[in-house]
Amino acid sequence: MTLLELSGVSVHYGRIKAVSELTITVNEGEIVTLIGANGAGKSTTMRAISGIRPVSAGTITFAGEDITRLRADLRVVRGISQAPEGRGIFPGMTVHENLDMGAYARKDRKNLAAEMDHVFELFPRLAERRTQAGGTLSGGEQQMLAIGRALMSKPKLLLLDEPSMGLAPQFIQQIFRIITEINKEGTTVLLVEQNAQQALSRAHRAYVLETGSIVKSGTGRELLADESIKEAYLGVA
């Protein structure tokens, strides 16, 4: 079943067209990844889906509902949650308080303690640091916190924007293992990632963006084997 569909979506920054007539589908239960160079329009696409950036043309449909003009907070209520590029945690709040902020839009607050326990199971480091201020965590721990906070809204669709950016190799491996685990537990994932090797090896399907347009799509395995993708994104000549 199609959970998310972008149909002919364009996004402008003033006169600059950052995304051009994008058509993407994400099916329930998938990990779908968007790869591309800096400035390709990946993060802009994520902002359009989450409602942070308005679209100038096209439609966005989520779970059968047209959400193109829906406010960002109401998209969270519908089941879309994002761990943004740059993490965006609240540095002066504790780990526990940051996670609690992730559940601000939820009406069913009776299960919050169990949800938080589950986040701590996924990220034991956060459990060890639950009373520590978010701003004192390492980069990898802050990324874990950003993902954990997004999970606290119990999303149907988790948007992850550059989760491995700036992380040490051991943290990158850990983050991608947890993304796979989250997906196996039933959460659909749309992933923007510059680490194409990791992203494509985990993704069911993938799209390649160049200057705001899709130039290739296929399964993760197909694109990993594609010679032009290897040369452009995997460092294989």
Automatic annotation (TrEMBL):
Family annotation (InterPro entries): AAA+_ATPase (IPR003593), ABC_branched_ATPase_LivF/BraG (IPR030660), ABC_transporter-like_ATP-bd (IPR003439), ABC_transporter-like_CS (IPR017871), BCAA_Transport_ATP-bd_LivF (IPR052156), P-loop_NTPase (IPR027417)
SMART domains tied to this protein: AAA
Ranges annotated as spanning the membrane: none
Keyword ATP-binding attributed: yes
Entry keyword set: Amino-acid transport, ATP-binding, Nucleotide-binding, Transport
One Pfam family cited in the UniProt record for this chain: ABC_tran
Domain of life: Bacteria
GO molecular function annotation: ATP binding
Domain ABC transporter per the UniProt entry, residue ranges: 4-236
Coiled coil: none
Stored CDD domains: ABC_TM1139_LivF_branched (cd03224)
Family designation: Belongs to the ABC transporter superfamily.
Protein name (Swiss-Prot/TrEMBL): ABC transporter ATP-binding protein
